[in-house]
Amino acid sequence: MPGFWYLLFLAIVFQGCFMSLLFLLTAKSRQANLYLGLALLAFSVQLGIYILYWEGKLDTEFPWLSPLGVYLQLLFGPLLWLYMKSLKYEAALRSREALIHLGIGLLGIAYYLYSRVLFPVAPGGAPLFPRRYAVLFFFMTGILSLGFYGFLMVRTAYRDQSGSRFKSNWLKQIVHFYGLYVLAYYGYYVLVRKSFFTPYWDYCIGLLMGVGMYGIGYMAYRFPHLLDEKNQKKKLIGEQYESSTITDSAVNSILRQLDREMQEKAWYKDNISLDSLAKRINVNKHQLSQVINQGKGISFTEYINKLRIDESIRLLNEHPDLSIKEVYFKVGYANKTSFYAHFKRITGMTPTEFKALPHRPADHRNRTDDSSTSGPSPRTES
């Protein structure tokens, strides 16, 4: 392997390990970073194995590492899919769901570690008989896994356009980077038997795979504000009302009055407008709009819908005998489609899925504001 390529890939591996460490250290505050950090770490190890292979040292000096890349391949698709999903709904995924997607990859890693004891590599470097079929099974599963999770990512990024423009664009970028990785990986097995295939083709394919995988990590590290929808909204809202004369104490006073009015009278259940609500609490509608935007980081419509969804969760918990139709009528929705769309956007699941949970949470985890409002989510006049 020429010195230039060796140093280039070595630098990429170290950079990838450093980047993965940064995400893993912040995984406690954002679960999505855990999945991305693990994906980057797994790929860095895989790329390190490629370097040993290109240097001619894999089979001679590190034969026990030879099949590890096959098992790591099983983790890339699931980890990036979980990263995308947790970003989309800004909620911690249940452990059971994560294990379902990561199960086959974890099984492969466990088998790899186990087989080092039961079926050690033969002196000549060739694996013993039982391992060949196991490695082939996990290899083919990894090939299919890349395509399957690519399909899930495309469907998630392009099918549902709800959410902020920033996040929607980022989800599509994940698909593009992941697609580059998958195409490079598949391309290797298409081209490797061609007469024109040389080690330089191999290096270029490895480089494209690195761009695809580390591209996601670099963008997530370089532009974290694009992923924080709540702070992004507050930043834009702050700029919008920069010249406003309303004081912070006035904002807090109106917020308390608004929350009290909503909790006591539950106006969100009616077809209430911004103007009519402003009259009820004796402020003008422009001030009320500013207070909701600045104080809660969301629009009036989002505030009303959040209150309704909170109330629907309370009803589903306290009155399990109620049908979903009865619930959405009680909280002010006129049709099932709007209710389902808002419920899933806020909680990460449909009302039917929520109702089927054995232990339902008392309140949704994906809150869209910083207030203490405990009521449900409203609807506006058309």
Structure in a nutshell:
This protein has 16 helices and no strands. It is mainly alpha-helical and 382 residues long.
Q: How much is the radius of gyration in Å?
A: 26 Å
What's the CATH architecture name of the largest domain? Up-down Bundle
The secondary-structure class comes to: mainly alpha
Helix content: over 70%
Number of domains: 2
Order of helices and strands: HHHHHHHHHHHHHHHH
Alpha-carbon distance between the two ends: 67 Å
CATH class of the largest domain: Mainly Alpha
Here the CATH topology of the largest domain equals Rhopdopsin 7-helix transmembrane proteins
Count of alpha and pi helical runs:
16
Number of strands: 0
Q: List segments where confidence is low: pLDDT < 50 over at least 5 consecutive residues.
A: 364-382
